[in-house]
Amino acid sequence: MVPAGGPVNVSDYERLAEECLEPGPYGYFAGGAWDEVTLRDNVRAFERWQLRPRVLVDLTGAALDTTVLGTPVSMPILLGPAAFQRLAHPDGELATARAAAAAGTVMCLSTFATLSAADVAAAAPDGRRWFQLYVFKDRGVTRSLVDQAADAGYEAIVVTVDAPFLGRRERDIRNAFTVPDDIPVPSWEAGGRGEEATVFEMFELIDEGLDWRDVEELASLSDLPLVVKGILTDDDARLAADNGAAAVVVSNHGGRQLDGVPAALDALPEVVEAVESRVEVLVDGGVRRGTDVVKALALGARAVLVARPFVWGLAVDGEAGVRRVLELLREETLLALVLAGCTTPAGVTRAHVQRAPR
Ligand SMILES: Cc1cc2nc3c(=O)[nH]c(=O)nc-3n(C[C@H](O)[C@H](O)[C@H](O)COP(=O)(O)O)c2cc1C
Known about the structure:
- By secondary structure, the protein is an alpha/beta fold.
- It contains 14 helices and 12 strands.
- Helix 4 (about 90-105) packs across helix 5 (about 115-125) and helix 11 (about 235-240) packs across helix 12 (about 265-275).
- It is globular.
- The model has no long low-confidence stretch (mean pLDDT about 95).
- The protein binds flavin mononucleotide.
- Flavin mononucleotide binds near residues 42, 110, 132, 251 and 286.
């Protein structure tokens, strides 16, 4: 039982997180780019779709487990990459890794994690993990990040392609937000820097010259499957499939990069159609409810990723907070699934959603 007055959904966790975080880190976690139009639209997009429930379906034995890139997961909800998690809680990525393992799902570690890939793996040896890669100008650093992840048992490389430059994040500019030097960022140090840094300075290490040929090369850098994160159009989805990706993440980086682009959910159908099942399609951005997860499945996603929801849990109560947020999303998703008349994630089809009337 949740204590009376305690958080009962992701929004409650966000409110509590705002109370317990300093304005700088809160602004970094919560914020988006420019006027934050896309940040808001990611959430609102889910209201533009309605569920079309089927009734009198035998729901006995309904369950959420599925696979993503062959990895079994207990639910179609993964933990997306979020940088600097020790700014949310001293245990940072260790807590997230343990909570993801306990929930039986994949955690994707950010290149800009505040702990090394090996340390995070050691915190939850039974967990399943992917590594999110920013490609550094110094390809030696890029290669060593991939090698470290592969050595530590990470099972996919998720290359983020929507951030060749940092989006204009005005909350961070106003707050003069920096990552303090007592919270080291191993990849930043590997890139030759060591002092307190702004996120903008960190992104100066990232290669803005990256193109599709590099993606093909990255796919061959290790035996791990390559996931391309940050796709919003059918043309780029086809190019990802043509250039060695095993999956794409339809994403606008949580509204943190280019503002004024489509909500991730709205971009999902064209990507699903374009790839014609050649690659798995994941989506992230604005998922706050189990009903959102079911809508994403209906529009063709194999699974969703969440970032802010678990960061709020982490800020409020460390590992226990992340666990609780994941359990809330799991309970809500299972309930939404069965009330829509489905017994498995694969059973949710395009016929289970329609555009909401304007
Ligand atoms: C605080 C924060 C840090 C993030 N850091 C990264 C990152 O290091 N790499 C990356 O590919 N995406 C990063 N993202 C984007 C998320 O992986 C994801 O695309 C997006 O936030 C999903 O939307 P949601 O926060 O509404 O769930 C970050 C997002 C947030 C909120």
